[in-house]
Amino acid sequence: MALEDAEAASEARRQKSSFGMDDLEVLSGPEGAEKAAILPDVDVVLHAIPGFAGVGPLLSSLEKGKRIAFAGKEALVCAGDLFSGYITGNQRFVPVDSEHSAIFQCLVGEDPCEVSEIVLTASGGALRDLPEDRLSSVTPDDVLKHPTWQMGKKITVDSATLFNKGLEVIEAHYLFGLPYERIKVVLHRESIVHSMVTFRDGTTKAQASRPDMRLAISYGLTYPGRMDRVIPSLAPYRGTLTFEEVDTVRFPSLSLCYRAGEIGGSAPCVLSCADEVLVQEFLSGRIGFSHIPAVLKEILDSYDPKKVDGMETLIEERKWAVRRVREILNGKEWSV
User: Can you give the pTM of this predicted structure?
Assistant: First the structure.
């Protein structure tokens, strides 16, 4: 067992005997997560650590050849160049994000060379129908009312800015080996079609199910098999499915992620780490919602990307990103 907080880990050690768990080893911090991810008797590692903190445990488990059900997209976004040699064509690395699980399922039995493009679907988040001139005045409570999914605060804010979808574009680039111009995003309010793959003959395959993460998680754990009746089926489904183009003026964070991905190197890592800080600033009420993409753009405009040749580079660039966000926020008045 590994807990991020050292005090929480100490408390767990003190209380474990009262639960009859004297033999349980309680670890803490990043080193604890990395050690837990490579334990010899671990069959499947479900990687769901958000943010930069997930990079180390993912690298450790990949180096040990573990079977991985992967849901920690920021780790792949930050360190995709380090991981690409481990995941390309690796059937022991199964994505768990609903969109990437959908693409993975659509590609089972298919020749990847036949793929023309992949299409990620986006719900649009809590603010998708709010007039654009009101976006700057929304509160964290407004943003956290996601219309479809119940998720953590950070990912719910990223859903509203579409930054999360931008991270998924970068993730898809590394998972499926397609250039960014062949990875599309469409707004799909119903969250029934989780993503699609179009092949060069014009055929499009889509994976559809009720919006329930239990399905993607179970598939990641049991692939190539499936569990019985994880969620109710769609049949008979009664309703309309809609697909709309994404307004990139309204959602500038999506374009910023495409741009960072195309720049390559450490640019995606810096953008992701900067967003972690900015989302927390927004949730704490210190900046407004529209300030998030504004600061991200300022950072990307002035950034000189580095070649990702090891963890040391990523750690230093993360520090730079956090420091640069603080400099920008401290250098201006940010009315909320």
Answer: 0.92
